[in-house]
Amino acid sequence: MTAAPPPPRLPSSALTLPPAVSITQAPPVELLEMHEHQCPECGKTHTSLFRGTSAMCPDCTEKLRIAALQPEAEKAQAESQESRLKAWFDLCPPDYRSTNWRDHAELSPMCRWLAKHWWLAGAERDAKLGPDGKPVFGHQRGLGLWGPTGRGKTRAMYAIIKRLHFAGVRCHAVQAIHFAEAAMLIAERAPWSVREGAVDLIRRCQTVPVLLFDDLGKENSTPAVAKAMHDLVEVRKAHQRTLLWTSERTADELAQFLGVNFADGIVRRIGEITRVFHTEDPIPTAAAVTSNPDLPESP
Ligand SMILES: Nc1ncnc2c1ncn2[C@@H]1O[C@H](COP(=O)(O)OP(=O)(O)OP(=O)(O)O)[C@@H](O)[C@H]1O
Ligand SMILES: [Mg+2]
Ligand SMILES: [Zn+2]
C-alpha cells in the first residue's frame, strides 16, 4: 500500500479572495450620460458628455477653431505668393515682364491674340473653335510661333508663361543659344564643375511640365547640339509635356540648319507636338473665339 499524497497547499492569498458574486447581483454599470447645455455663443441647446452648463455647441467650437487658424493660413498664403513672385522674377527677364500690346504697332496682332488666349490643352481649350468649327489651337499640346524679328513672339510666350506660372503650372524658359552651349559642354566632357550646371539645365528642359524654347535656330548647329535637341523633343513628346517655341526660321530652314542626321526627326516631332502659327497669319475671327472668364482680359 502506498501512502495518500498530501492535500495541495493553497497560497495564503487564495484565502482572501472576495466571495463570488453572481452577475444578476452586480450593481448596475453607469453608462455614459449626455448632458444638456445651452451654448453661451449662440444660445442653441445641445447635448454633450460633459457636465456643466456652459459648453459651446459643435458649430461654435468649429468657428472658434477656424478663427484661431486664420492667421496661420493667411501667413502661409502670403508666403506662397511671395515665393511664386520670386520664382517669376527668376523665370522671366525684366524686359519681358510686362508688354504694352496696345501702343506698340510693331507687335503682330497674332502674337497679341495668342498672348491673350492660348491655354493648356484640355476641355476648356477645346471649347474654343475656329471658323472651321475645329479647336482653334489644334489638338497638339504645345505652341510654335515663327516670323520676322521684333514682332513680339517672345513677348507673347512670356505672357502665356506668366498666366501658367501664377496658375501654379511649373514652367521653364531657355534660350536656344544657352541650351546649345550646355549640350556642347557635355559633349566636350568639360570638367564636372562646369558640366554639372549644363547637365542640370538639359535635364530640367526635358522634365519641366511647360518649356519655352526661345529662338530655335539661333544656336550653333553641331551634331552634339542636334542630338541634344532630338533627345529633348523625343523625351517631351514621349511624356506628353508641353513645348512652346519661337523661331525666325521656316521648317525648311530649320531642317537644313539642324543637319541631315537629326533634322527630319526633330522637325517632324516638333510639328506633331506643337500647333504652329506665323506672326503674319490672320487671327481666327473674334466671333469664333469664346472668351474665357478665368483669364485676364489683357495679357
Ligand atoms: N514695353 C514694351 N511693350 C511692348 N512692346 C515693346 C516694349 N518694349 C519693346 N517693345 C517691342 O517689342 C518688340 C520685341 O519683342 P520680342 O522680343 O518679343 O520680339 P521677337 O518677335 O521675339 O523678336 P526676335 O525674333 O528678334 O526674338 C520690339 O519690336 C520692340 O519694339
Ligand atoms: Mg524673340
Ligand atoms: Zn453655438
Description:
With 299 residues, the protein is α/β, with parallel strands linked by helices. The protein is 42% helix and 12% strand. The chain has two domains: 58-91; 94-289, Rossmann fold, CATH 3.40.50.300. The protein has nine helices and seven strands, in the order E-E-H-H-H-E-H-E-H-H-E-H-E-H-H-E. Strands 4-5-6-3-7 form a five-stranded parallel sheet, sandwiched between helices. It is elongated. The protein starts with 34 loop residues before the first strand and ends in a 21-residue tail after the last strand. It binds adenosine-5'-triphosphate, magnesium ion and zinc ion (ZN). Residues 39, 41-42, 44, 56-57, 59-60 line the site of zinc ion.
